[in-house]
Design a protein that fits this description.
alpha/beta, Helicase, Ruva Protein, domain 3, Zinc Finger, Delta Prime, domain 3, 4 domains, about 5% strand
């Protein structure tokens, strides 16, 4: 009987569908990220919210619980690592399927073998990578096995399972959300890789600037960080040295080491230039600063939020559809993530830069709030007050109110503002884009309301 990479027995030859990152034969050319894959729960970095004592994930990893779980999170945060730890427990068979290569036939075969093994008292852990790529038919095949606990299913996905997994399967499983790794988490992995015998075994040193560059390029992806470190070490060795500098990292990663501190001056300077470029309608500069932030590992959600704010503050009613574009880009960032969501962000950037500009909306609400804060409030005119409760008419509430739909043009000429604010004008549309038509419409409404627009 042969064994897999982690020493688990393998009863049948691996098929193309069952071979994967966990079941490949061991050899001395394994990538650094694979060699350093944690062997126990305590070696897992990050995801502390899921790995506390007695937590479902810890019980699963220690082989003390039969359950099915979906691991949802961005690339490189530990989904496959958790599956590897479970496989190394040695208490159950481990079978890996990739949704990219496995079809219904392969899934049925894996489940049939699991049933045979269970009859012999041997449980099976079935790891399905990229489960969101499974069709509904493939997911339906898994359902009875999960419901009857024929297998312990560990399904990994980078997409929201609520949208990509059938409800019956999801409702019978535990959904665990993995968080992006922090720079501190990735730094721990880099230090481990430099010193661990399975890694670089102390043969290389990493300068502080190079460490910062690797963390920035990694963007919270552990696999990417270790891959870049491995390539940088190979580059340093090719140059006859053992020090990994910023230049060595930049050459290995094939990216310029962009100077950018997500918590310092560069963060604030670049986002300031980004917003001011879009406000100034320079689409080329806007795209440059977007690319600069993305390459530096800036959080794309932060960029999306700033675009939504800009669409409201600096564009407003001059091009109201731009706000919808920015909100859609923010949703794409949340649902899809990088690198694909960079296209959605670029879409929003171009729309913001090229749209006509107006700050009339923010000026209007600022002016209205300023009056309220200054105490210019006044009482609600009697004819607008609530007249639905008994006795309201005794106080004159609702008396003389004109129903707008009964009036000509659907506009009833009556006083709406309190007496103290009867002449207030907050919204002053510009003649830019859509607001030019809004200005004409406002003038017409003011006339129908019996007051002249100033």
């Amino acid at each position: 009987m042969s064994t897999d990479l982690f020493g688990n027995p393998v009863d049948e030859p691996a098929t193309a569908a069952s071979r994967g990152s966990l079941s490949s034969a061991g050899h001395d050319q394994l990538p650094l990220a694979v060699r350093l894959r944690p062997r126990t729960v305590d070696e897992i970095v990050g995801q502390d919210h899921l790995l506390g004592p007695g937590s479902p994930l810890r019980r699963l990893a220690e082989g003390n619980q039969a359950m099915s779980v979906f691991l949802w999170g961005p690339p490189g945060v530990g989904k496959t690592t958790i599956a590897a730890v479970v496989s190394a427990s040695g208490k159950r068979r481990f079978v890996e399927l990739s949704a990219v290569t496995a079809g219904v036939k392969e899934v049925r075969a894996a489940l049939a073998e699991a049933e045979r093994q269970l009859a012999r008292g041997v449980g099976t852990v079935l790891f399905v990578d990229e489960v969101h790529r499974f069709s509904k038919a493939q997911q339906d095949v898994l359902l009875p096995a999960v419901e009857n606990r024929l297998v312990t299913l560990i399904a990994a996905t980078t997409e929201n399972p609520s949208f990509s997994v059938i409800s019956p399967l999801l409702s019978r499983s535990l959904l665990l959300t993995l968080k992006p790794l922090s720079d501190a988490d990735v730094a721990v992995l880099l230090d481990r890789a430099l010193t661990d015998e399975r890694g670089l075994a102390g043969g290389f040193t990493l300068t502080e600037d190079a460490r910062t560059a690797l963390l920035r390029f990694a963007g919270g992806d552990a696999r990417r960080a270790l891959t870049y470190l491995e390539e940088s070490a190979a580059g340093a060795e090719a140059l006859g040295g053992t020090e990994i500098s910023t230049d060595v990292v930049a050459a290995a990663v094939d990216r310029a080491a962009v100077r950018y501190d997500r918590g310092g001056d560069q963060h604030y300077d670049v986002i300031s230039a980004f917003i001011k470029s879009l406000r100034g309608s320079d689409v080329q500069a806007g795209l440059h600063y977007l690319a600069r932030m993305l390459e530096a590992g800036e959080d794309p959600r932060f960029i999306a939020r700033r675009l939504i704010i800009l669409a409201s503050e600096d564009i407003g009613m001059a091009a109201p559809s731009v706000l919808q574009t920015c909100v859609a880009a923010a949703q794409a960032v949340q649902l899809i993530g990088l690198p694909e969501a960079r296209i959605n962000l670029a879409h929003a950037v171009i729309a913001c830069a090229m749209a006509p500009k107006s700050n009339a909306v923010v000026a209007a609400i600022d002016a209205a709030q300023a009056d309220v804060q200054a105490g210019r409030i006044g009482t609600v005119p009697p004819h607008l007050r609530d007249a639905h409760y008994p006795g309201a008419k005794t106080y004159g509430h609702g008396t003389g109110y004109q129903y707008a739909h009964d009036a000509e043009h659907g506009v009833a000429a009556q006083q709406y503002l309190p007496d103290e604010l009867a002449g207030a004008r907050y919204y002053r549309p510009t003649d830019h884009g859509n607001e030019a038509a809004m200005a004409d419409r406002l003038a017409t409404l003011e006339h129908l309301l019996g007051r002249d627009a100033d």
